[in-house]
Amino acid sequence: xxxxxxxxxxxxxxxxxxxxxxxxxxxxxxxxxxxxxxxxxxxxxxxxxxxxxxxxxxxxxxxxxxxxxxxxxxxxxxxxxxxxxxxxxxxxxxxxxxxxxxxxxxxxxxxxxxxxxxxxxxxxxxxxxxxxxxxxxxxxxxxxxxxxxxxxxxxxxxxxxxxxxxxxxxxxxxxxxxxxxxxxxxxxxxxxxxxxxxxxxxxxxxxxxxxxxxxxxxxxxxxxxxxxxxxxxxxxxxxxxxxxxxxxxxxxxxxxxxxxxxxxxxxxxxxxxxxxxxxxxxxxxxxxxxxxxxxxxxxxxxx
Length: 303
Fold this sequence. Notes:
303 residues; 8 strands; 42% helix
């Protein structure tokens, strides 16, 4: 957890286009009630931005799968470009934040209620890092995890990437012990998810989200491209103010700022005793009956 509070308005949050485009994708998932793209298999219920002062070390975006802050959640660190090598200063910063999460939230990581996510642009190193996280998830902490020495890690690129991760973790945690480093690397990789995201207007994730917003946008009388750009602008305003947004609040902002009516109104079930209009087209010669509830022996057909 951060020892000193910082101002999000003065730490370069404003104008970081890539980060806020990623945030816009997640706000779109929140608006649609859609599942998170990575981290957990739950719909997005709340999105929080720039949460360092709230104690999140992966602080750029925090996504919640329930309304409760104790429920499933993921901390997301966004990097437009990151070189996943042991000598890269930005990657070492990411690993330093991961070490802090593992130190402070080990139980939440262990029971799966908390996940760390690195969201970054396409990169060969990220593909290998993602593969390492999948292998780490499949290995018990009692078994251990060292792809440089055991099968099935015959892929030399994976072994090399693991060495880079271990070097960055050792530097970030100031460790000299190889055994301690291996344990910590295993813990980090098992809890880490890699989101290779393309949030630019011509990127795959952006275009996929445009398709997902089509029906909502049509209901509001606008194009999906306009709606997603509105979410991007809102994210830029939310971020520096450390906002925590739920679906109702987001729909309210879209209505007040852009005049878009996206308020969901649940259809109410008929109340007992209420009047329901029933139309019966009868072309036969027998008797036709209509009522709110029809009882035929043990059969009940509610209108």
